[in-house]
Amino acid sequence: MAVRIYSLAKELKVDSKELVDLCTQIGITGKGSALASLSEDEVVKIQDYFKGSGPKASAKGGAAAPPPPERPRQMGNAGGRMPVIVTQKPSGPLSSLRKLRDEEQPTEVEAEAAQELDSALAAEAPVAEETAAAPPAPAAPSAPAEPEPPRSHGPLAGVMRRDDYVGPGNMSGKPPVFEEPKSGNRGGSGGKPAGSPPPKARPAIKLAPMPAVEPPKPLRGKAGGEQVMKPDMKLPADAMRAGKSGSKPLAAHLRRHEDAVDAAKKAKALEEENAKAAKRGGRGKPMIGGKEGEGGPLLGGREERQLARRRTTRPGDEDRPMRGPRRARPKRRSGVSSTVPRKERISIQLPCTVRELSAAAGVPGVDILRILMSEGAMATLNTQMDPDMTELIAAELGIVIDFKAPKSLEDEFLDEIRSMVDPEESLVARPPVITFLGHVDHGKTSLIDKIIGMNVVGGESGGITQHIRAYQVDRNGKRISFVDTPGHEAFTEMRARGANVTDIAVIVVAADDGVMPQTEEAISHARAAEVPIVIALNKTDLPGIDFDKIYQQLATNDLLPSEWGGDVEVVKTSATTGAGIENLLDTLLTVAELHEYKANPDREALGTCLEAQQMADRGVMAKVMVQNGTLHVGDVVVCGDAFGRVKSMDDTLNSKLRHEEALPSMPVNIWGLDVAPAAGEHFYVLDDIGLAREIAEARAKRVRSEFLSGVAPTHVTLENLFDRLEGAVDVSTLNIILRADTRGSIEAIRKELGKLEHPEVKLRILQAMVGGVTEADVTLADASDAIVIGFNVVPDERAKSAAEQRGVQIRRYEVIYKIADDLKQSLEGMLKPEEREVDLGRALVQQVYKISRVGAIAGCRVLGGIIARDARVRIIRDSTVVGDYAIDTLKREKDDAKEVREGLECGIKIAGFNDVKEGDLLEAYRIEEIGRKFDS
Ligand SMILES: Nc1nc2c(ncn2[C@@H]2O[C@H](COP(=O)(O)OP(=O)(O)OP(=O)(O)O)[C@@H](O)[C@H]2O)c(=O)[nH]1
């Protein structure tokens, strides 16, 4: 199992940074960070180093038996240790390729890569003239007596490309022209000194010196004459098209093609030299494909063994060309996408592997490998590709590609922590966290004041809450935590950052004012946060209160009071007299009991920063809410771009009171972070200060670059809805914030939208209010990934710029049915499309041409309908379907064809299938995705 460096460092009691350095020293490469994973062998190597006489081991007295941790902790199932994260630190996706290039000798990886690629291609190409075309160049024939050049072992050594292809209609075309890669240093990268940094944007090019090759012998005709029977192959059609458009790699490709003539000359010269060497009795080029004793040169031990392996034929294979050992591998795995329809547009996260790209695009992996090979990059299905290479491949395949942002270190870490499940037995009840929301001056702060018995309102400038406050109080032995926010925007801001610290929302409504616009907003915000709502009907000490009117207003906002038979608790309070406060606390505790809020106090803490500030004398003070686990003085904490060791913890009510630990749901002021984190940032505890620094720095860097690039985050829009939903099947709710000119309009719109019902998708109106679109609406939309709809109203300037900044879509309408139509269309886009098979046509295989390194080409005549390039074909032999594959290449005469019509001849290369036979029937079909309709 892979182990993270920092985990091992912790086990060995060494600094993880030092361990990273040590890895390089002892030859474990590619470990640039403490988050990098180590294989079992690498772990053993490091442990051996520590067991031995390494400087670290002797300095620390060995690490064989590290002392027990200072404080036993539990991290979910991890048995008291931070879990091992198996995700890989994103390293340069082409680094493996570059590594292959930079290494002097072929490594195991290289050999494996070579083998896999070779196998993938070979499975496609059990070909007649393989013997002439593909020796893996075990010895450099041009210099038989000298040691082999370092890069001569790659399977690409000896790879030749056909430069042309003649379809069945032109079977007596020119003999194939082979292209020889320039020996030594193609692309200029092979001559770089080892260790010099690889060029950034270009793919690493695997170089292989060219072995001496015989020009291919033309196939003999049936009569045994020298008639040319096999068609030439030209460059892949995509490559030709892209080359014309001027893409650089393809220009290189074409240049190489022009070099083929030189290469052929060179090959001839090499051959002559080789023949001379053979005559001299030296170690010549192994004879491949010839019969034993047919005058081949004497072979050395290795060559002899290789040759012997090549001569091994399977029963029934006598007539087939001899195969190398690699071709005897079982099934190739490159058909990963054989059942996925080919896509025109894909969205993929980088770095991605060949296999992932193949699966996402519905293109056979071998096609991608072939493109990589044509660029000189040797790869396997598991090779990671960088954005440039991925884009290049997408262009070659004619696919539009959108990149998803890669996961940050922090995301990786958070994901890991979030995915940790606390064992049921470790969970204990925790105090509920209550947030007070409501219209300005309705008495939120006064109520909390009354509850905790202090007077904060008096101390606030202008009597308006300026800061987030958080307190914990004791109620008959049960604790309750309160959060007092300056307004619902602050509450929603926090949600927008993914931080929802609230368990229960108390909406404070002043009895003399009733439900005000901001009360409605607060209700929407609480509802969007999906937390239970309790109404505190405050200022009931005032005279002339019309309770029925307020209950009616609440009911209009879908909050039917329990007194009226609904499920919303309305508690009448007075912050001035204290009436109803006890009742409010009891109600809150009852709701909390119903919801059974639980946490595991025995794990490392995680929570949210509510507020932070830099104090001139003591450094950074952060007010945090512990949401799970227990935070201790001395813990290493990372919070957004801040990190540090907790030096001390103060009580939030009494700053002179120090805490040694903070349990779940406890707000506490912590000291010791290097900078003030933003409100709403998650904090979590790590064991390693070096790792905390690394994560914080990575975060700071990301935030800075996002700020500089000015890229707004993308939220849902009616247009991108469909794209966003691709691959995120579980997302089936479209959130709406509605603003309209009158209540009547809102009702009419609600009614229209109510008709858009479907079991698979849902429309959720988070907020429906009269008036123009405000900044608060945008904040809510931002936090809830919603679309703002304005009916006969406009957004104000602040709302407009906030929407721009946050990437929130505001759509304006003047006709109700248009809203319904647009939303209907969007919801239809959310329905998973139906896949339907469309029959295209049939073709009869009249002749099969086997071409080295390309595979079998079926020379066909279209019997009916059409054969299309992007179709799949069922191969029917003796009335039985023997396979179902995608078409790789479709040619008409010499040219690539998009489709070939009835009665015409064409050449078809079937992706991943070379066993096509004369007389086979190819039935072409296409899988079409049909968008579903709401009423279907
Ligand atoms: N009569 C009466 N006045 C109250 C009551 N509760 C609060 N007030 C008064 O209402 C005013 C506003 O109270 P706050 O607690 O500051 O209201 P708030 O909702 O926290 O206001 P913001 O901090 O601006 O959001 C103050 O002058 C309070 O004295 C009450 O129950 N009865």
UniProtKB/TrEMBL annotation:
Extent of Basic residues compositional bias:
323-334
Q: Where is the Tr-type G domain?
A: 429-598
Chloroplast as a keyword of this entry, yes or no, is no
Q: Where is the composition biased (Low complexity)?
A: 52-64, 120-134
Pfam families recorded for this chain?
A: EF-G_D2, GTP_EFTU, IF-2, IF2_N
Q: Where is the composition biased (Basic and acidic residues)?
A: 256-276
Disordered, as annotated region: 52-344
Keyword flag Nucleotide-binding? yes
InterPro entries, per this entry? EF-G-like_DII, IF2_II, IF2_N, P-loop_NTPase, Small_GTP-bd, T_Tr_GTP-bd_dom, TF_IF2_bacterial-like, TIF_IF2
GO function terms (MF aspect): GTP binding; GTPase activity; translation initiation factor activity
Q: Which NCBIfam families match?
A: IF-2, small_GTP
Function summary: One of the essential components for the initiation of protein synthesis. Protects formylmethionyl-tRNA from spontaneous hydrolysis and promotes its binding to the 30S ribosomal subunits. Also involved in the hydrolysis of GTP during the formation of the 70S ribosomal complex.
Provide the protein name. Answer: Translation initiation factor IF-2
The organism is Lacipirellula limnantheis
The organism that produces this protein has a lineage beginning with: Bacteria, Pseudomonadati, Planctomycetota, Planctomycetia, Pirellulales
